[in-house]
Specification:
Helix content is about 30%, strand content about 20%. The protein has about 350 residues and is an alpha+beta fold. It is elongated, with a radius of gyration of 20 Å.
């Protein structure tokens, strides 16, 4: 299982060029669903029209479809110093390596990944997931920066907020809001998530669909604690849970045929043969007779997740999308919903990473 988790780790951080981000976590785009105040904002679920002349479509391999063979980082011959033996961690930022307090890094990553006004128990769950991720990186260094445990590139490791800049951007409430992040880290200090005595790969995403996705569904490898679990009560009530994207059929056909010249996009229905994963995310769909992975089509069309349906009109394609992100591991809005319903941070993590234990380092 160690080898499999390590491969999936590489897929997630080296190849998942969307998103969180997916960094350990989630993408820059996912983080932008909140306003700088830390409240729910950004995408509201209203219809979005995409007409292609500009980068409406993306090419290349979807992160969800990435190859583990090419993306997996190699473990170094000299293991990193365990975090329990030092109070600092090497961080690569803007091309330079510096030492940073482990708990300060937990605060800065948590501040970059979750809105400060989320409930306290959700912030604590996020802080523990972030700390667990840092430990995992210490235990599994990567060849891209062997002398630094993590970097501040959200497409490879994780976003790292600048505390002072963030506080200033929040205005008069800046210090108060950041203190919520610091309190969440302090009250969970030293706590990490383990499975079978080993640090887990604590991936997370913005918002799940009707359920979370499993690692096997998204990356092709089974991980016992990254399985599909039901979305909690209340998560679907947030405005960003459902979104709509409209794409002109002519623009879609032009871009799709560049990548799949064998497709037949003439008269009649273009989409057929939709296959769903047990979690409800799209496994594959035939487009003009060509089978395309759900994650690949999500990336190609700029959809928020691979849980979607499509309606074909005379001139437009309408995609109705549920959730935001790859769907594996902890849903941040799900953590918010659970906290608002009275769950503790331990219960939140137990729900999203079944079979794991919380340990004190």
């Amino acid at each position: 299982m160690k080898k499999l988790i390590f491969i999936i780790f590489g897929m997630l951080f080296a190849a998942f060029a969307f998103p969180m981000a997916l960094a350990a976590s989630r993408s820059e785009e996912e983080r932008n669903t909140e306003t700088v105040s830390g409240e729910e904002g950004g995408e509201t679920g209203s219809g979005e029209y995409l007409f292609s002349s500009e980068p409406v479509f993306s090419s290349g391999t979807s992160r969800d479809e990435s190859s583990a063979q090419t993306a997996a980082p190699e473990k170094q011959d000299s293991p990193a110093v365990p975090a329990e033996l030092t109070e600092t961690v090497a961080l690569l930022s803007d091309g330079e390596i510096s030492e940073i307090s482990l708990e300060e890094l937990v605060c800065r990553v948590t501040a970059a990944e979750m809105p400060a006004l989320f409930p306290e128990e959700a912030l604590k769950a996020q802080a523990v997931a972030v700390r667990t991720y840092i430990y995992y990186r210490l235990e599994h260094p990567v060849k891209e920066h062997p002398d630094a445990a993590v970097c501040d590139d959200p497409n490879h490791c994780c976003a790292v907020a600048d505390r002072d800049a963030l506080v200033v951007s929040w205005g008069d409430s800046g210090d108060e809001w950041y203190s919520r992040i610091e309190a969440a880290a302090k009250e969970t200090r030293g706590r990490v998530i383990e499975y079978g005595g080993e640090t887990i790969l604590a991936v997370f995403h913005a918002m799940s669909a009707k359920a979370t996705a499993s690692a096997e569904e998204v990356w092709g490898g089974e991980v016992p604690y990254l399985v599909s679990v039901p979305s909690p009560r209340g998560e679907r009530e947030y405005s960003v849970w459902k979104s709509e994207v409209y794409i002109g059929k002519e623009a879609f056909a032009e871009s799709f045929l560049e990548k799949y010249p064998e497709a037949e996009l003439g008269a009649g229905d273009w989409f057929s043969g939709v296959e769903l994963e047990p979690s409800g995310y799209v496994r594959s769909v035939r487009v003009g007779g060509v089978e395309v992975g759900g994650g690949e089509l999500r990336c190609f069309c700029g959809l928020k997740s691979a849980c979607f349906s499509v309606e074909e009109g005379t001139d437009l394609l309408k995609f109705t999308v549920f959730g935001y992100g790859h769907g594996v591991g902890m849903s941040q809005y799900g953590a918010r919903a659970m906290a608002e319903n009275g769950s503790t941070w331990e219960e939140i993590l137990s729900h999203y990473y079944p079979g794991t234990d919380i340990k004190n380092r």
